[in-house]
Amino acid sequence: MNGQVRGVQLARLLGQWHALPGRRRSPDYAALAGSVRGLLADGRLPLGVRLPAERELAEALRISRTTVTAAYRQLRETGHLASRRGAGSWTMLPGNHRVASTGLWTPLDDREMLDLGVAALAAPPQLLSAARAATEDLPRYLGGAGYHPTGIIELREAVADAYTARGLPTSADQIMVTSGTQHALDLVLRLALAPGGTVLVESPTYPNALAALAGRRARITTHGLAADAGWEPDLLLGSLRQTRPKLAYLIPEFQNPTGHLMPASLRERVVAAAHAVCTDLIIDESFVDLSMDGTEVPPPVATYDRHSRVVSIGGMSKPYWGGLRIGWVRASAPQVQRLAAVRVGVDMASPVLDQLVAVHLLADAEDIVADRRVQLAVQRDALLGALAHRLPEWRVTVPRGGVTLWAELDGPVSSALARAAEEVGVRLAPGPRFGLDGTMERFLRLPFTLPAADLVEAVGRIAAIRYDLDRAGRQRWSEPAVIA
């Protein structure tokens, strides 16, 4: 088991389970069991964790113990809970589930699912030709052992050249190739963060970054982003000065999930404030290439760094393909060597063939990225149009880049909507996944990475489910009986 969740903690994660629209179509115990299953499905409640005793949870939720007992019984019947007399109950999942591309648990028979939980595109057509060219380059590497902890020189030079073209002079010695951006983040955390260290993150932020921080047992503090404006400069800088975190993890380019773009003036001030309080910045540049509508992207955050406080991470997943597990770290040359020493104890090196494919894709970056921007703009506009037509009560700030919309719903129903949408073949990422302690139930991340027709179809299904939740949730009032 991975530990125990207390009654007050589970109550906080469950949020407004008992007041969600549509709950009256089933008893309270079924609504409670369904909410726990939802927490398991979207990763907010880990597997193998011990749930609170029935009496403790009943007191935390201010409901009868009978309701909790019945909910636990239903969870055992569906294979989501295992209990042993005297030992308690701990979470599990039925045998017909697997890990989906989102990293979440999903039924095995979901091939027809419209997956809006994944914010990534299908592979570009240029991938096949890049793979063929890479196989022709491979023989010159076959005479060696194939271990390159910092990456092959061709790829490091290509990535360094891309930074230089953005106005940040960079040498190959400052680049370390990793197996994706998430791997880059994990290695930086292993090197720079002791267990229990304090980290400042945006709220909302990337769920897998929160998972990586949890794995390091980090103490997380947050800076809340405004839904329509993004970072509040004085609040962000004040958070740095007051909490003095060891690290701050930020996504300044088309932030995931909100799509906001940090202005150049704030980038410079953040670096200066971080240096003043001895905070290192991890800058996630996953979406930097995906600007739209002629939006000009400000200089990299590391441009303003004079004291090796900024570590930049990025990769091929968003502009190219998630199946090509290539990422990188840009840092000072000594930091790169220290990261390589950490990496030897983790996975040794990235696959040489994948790195050669990445070299050829980056050589054709101008055309590939231009096509991606056009594709994403069309799909974004299709999604915006469908939302305006079918769900006009939802508020959405139009992003100028990236791959996601951050929608403010017409009620705190994000988790309930996600659970209901699964039944009609749509997978959603509810707002609480992007924050801490079950907050952001009024928000939903909607990526526009599927074809336009699929996005329109998905919104139609979501709108129908939203309507059903409201209709089922209406209370019917009757006159009281008169007793004479």
Would you give an account of this structure?
The protein has 484 residues and is α/β, with parallel strands linked by helices. It has helices at 7-14, 28-41, 54-61, 65-77, 126-137, 153-165, 181-192, 207-215, 233-243, 264-276, 333-343, 352-363, 365-390, 414-422, 452-473; strands at residues 3-4, 49-50, 81-84, 88-91, 97-99, 105-107, 114-115, 175-178, 198-203, 219-224, 247-250, 280-284, 310-315, 327-330, 395-396, 404-408, 426-427, 429-430, 443-447. It is 40% helix and 15% strand. The longest helix is centred in the C-terminal third of the chain and has 26 residues, at 365-390.
Task: Describe the structure using short key phrases.
about 475 residues, alpha/beta, globular, disordered C terminus
What layout of secondary structure does this protein have?
Layout: E1 3-4, H1 7-14, H2 28-41, E2 49-50, H3 54-61, H4 65-77, E3 81-84, E4 88-91, E5 97-99, E6 105-107, E7 114-115, H5 126-137, H6 153-165, E8 175-178, H7 181-192, E9 198-203, H8 207-215, E10 219-224, H9 233-243, E11 247-250, H10 264-276, E12 280-284, E13 310-315, E14 327-330, H11 333-343, H12 352-363, H13 365-390, E15 395-396, E16 404-408, H14 414-422, E17 426-427, E18 429-430, E19 443-447, H15 452-473
Parallel strand pairs: 1-2, 7-17, 9-10, 9-11, 11-12, 12-13
Antiparallel strand pairs: 3-4, 5-6, 8-14, 13-14, 15-16, 16-19, 18-19
Helix pairs in contact: 1-3, 2-4, 2-14, 3-4, 5-12, 6-12, 7-8, 7-11, 9-10, 13-15
